[in-house]
Amino acid sequence: MQERRKLERFEIDAPARVVVETGSNQKVEYDLATRDVSSAGAFLFSPKPLPNGTSVKMEFLISLDALQKLTGDKGMAKVRVEGQVIRSDSSGIAIRFDSKYKITALGSNNLRNGSS
Known about the structure:
The protein is mostly beta strands. The chain has one domain (about 10-110): Thrombin, subunit H, CATH 2.40.10.220. About 5% of the residues lie in helices and about 65% in strands. The protein has a six-stranded antiparallel β-barrel. The radius of gyration is 15 Å and the shape is globular. It starts with 9 loop residues before the first strand and ends with a strand.
């Protein structure tokens, strides 16, 4: 099968929290882990599939050596994104990110806010 991805994916095993709003302002949270991440989406290991088209809010932590240059500390960055489930199978879910995102160095001011 030919690879269709246009963006490079990085194998990142990071803890992730996925929040799904179920209506009536109720939220269901899932603590999952990423398998890989690109600038356009991510695949997460999940024991429970979510229906395609489900809107999600996702937050995950990544370690960045570059943070040391920006903050003086080696540390972590918190990434917050919104997106939709585009594929779900027995091993997990694929999420395509929307243009809304926020990247925050933990313990310092926001590094970057905006849209891609």
